[in-house]
Amino acid sequence: MKLTTLIALALLTSSGYAFAGGGAAVPDRPEGGPPSGRPAAVLDDSKCASLWDKAKGNAAPYLVNFERVDADKNGKISEDEFKRGCSKGWVQEHASLPANSGGGQTPQKPTE
After folding, report:
1. What is the pTM of this model?
2. Residue 79: how many other CB atoms lie within 10 Å
């Protein structure tokens, strides 16, 4: 009797694995674009230099992630840090709108 109960229990618990299946397929690319705060397009040297000149000491609106670009953690972005950020995709081509305008981190021209 104990052996029969043990065998029945083993069959019941193992049958769940047989009917479980493989699950959903893994998508080949993330849905909805790149995750927030993650690098996107890497900017070439000429575009990066142009943005640095345009920023005129206020690079923050062009940065996707300030902490990643500020390598020396002094709260300021140097030209070298900005260029490294461009090469790693941490700098976006269009400046973000200021938070007090209701725009937060939305680029001014996101469709370009």
Report:
1. 0.57
2. 13
| Cβ atoms within 10 Å of 55's Cβ, excluding its own | 18
In a domain, 81, yes or no: yes
Q: 């000429």: which residue's tokens?
A: 46
For residue 12, the Cα-to-chain-centroid distance in whole angstroms is 44
Number of domains into which the chain is organized: 1
**Cα separations (Å) of 26 from 22, 30, 32, 48, 89?**
11, 10, 15, 35, 26
Q: What would the pLDDT profile of 42-77 be if each residue is shown by its tens digit?
A: 889 999 999 999 988 888 888 888 888 999 999 899
Q: What residue numbers bound the domain in which 53 lies? A: 45-97
Please indicate, yes or no, if residue 26 is contained in any of the structural domains.
no
Quick count: other Cβ atoms within 10 Å of Cβ 2?
6
Binning the chain into helix, strand and coil, the percentages to the nearest 5 are: 45, 5, 50
